[in-house]
Design goal:
The chain has about 230 residues and is mainly alpha-helical. The protein contains nine helices and four strands. It is globular, with a radius of gyration of 18 Å.
């Protein structure tokens, strides 16, 4: 019975995780179309501006829009966690980890990610100050929601539960969306690779499935059996 409850929870949580990742890229994609005046190309975890957009003085704005959208969702999750309703708390908890903030923190420390890419363009690749200022800004956006989520866990195994939620959604996105859907199915096999306004049909299909899956099963997010929250 408990295994069934966990499965019912993991399905909408997985859909939410994929939606948070793809919507991050949609934020890049559509803001890029607004800034550049034309659509570029997006996949599950990357985007390209349309040709010639680098001549636009605001061409880096879409690079920042994706992370800002993700940070906004993290803080919405933090706000939800502070509400009295257990449903709001569970949704807030799920929303924080479905945005896999470890991605923003880890890759920025490796000199990668949208934030460090934009900083390197603006201030140069070897600018140590901009590297650490960028990391500091990321920590200011990500650590408060994560701390709130950690403190909300009501369990003697709080650290273990936190680490599982912190790491597993990110690992899932890397393996499933990054390697399976994007690298193998979309780019290597060219499955449903035709595009509409720069968006592959495979991505649109996955987006529809995840929206429907989350919409019809989101009640199990509210009743999640894995973590008791304060």
């Amino acid at each position: 019975m408990r295994a069934l409850q966990i499965t019912k929870y993991l399905v909408p949580f997985t859909c939410l995780t994929i939606l948070c990742g793809t919507t991050h890229e949609f934020a890049h994609h559509f803001s890029g179309a607004i800034v550049c005046g034309c659509f570029g190309f997006k996949t599950f975890n990357s985007f390209q501006l349309c040709a010639g957009c680098e001549s636009n003085p605001y061409w880096l704005v879409p690079t920042y829009i994706g992370p800002l959208f993700t940070f906004l969702l993290l803080w919405i999750g933090r706000y939800q966690l502070k509400q009295e309703s257990i449903q709001s708390k569970q949704l807030g908890f799920a929303l924080i980890f479905a945005n896999f903030p470890v991605n923003r923190i880890l890759f920025a420390l490796m000199g990668m990610n949208d934030e460090q890419y934009a900083a390197s363009i603006l201030f140069g690749n070897e600018n140590t100050l901009s590297f650490w200022v960028t990391n500091l800004a990321i920590w200011l956006f990500t650590i408060p929601p994560l701390y709130t989520a950690y403190c909300s866990i009501k369990s003697p195994k709080r650290i273990l539960i936190f680490l599982l939620y912190f790491i597993i959604p990110f690992a899932f996105v890397i393996i499933f969306a990054g390697f399976l859907l994007e690298e193998w199915l979309l780019l290597k096999k060219q499955f449903l690779s035709s595009t509409i306004i720069g968006i592959p049909l495979l991505l649109i299909l996955v987006e529809i499935v995840c929206v429907l899956g989350y919409y019809f099963l989101k009640k199990h997010i509210y009743q999640q059996p894995l973590v008791k929250l304060k």
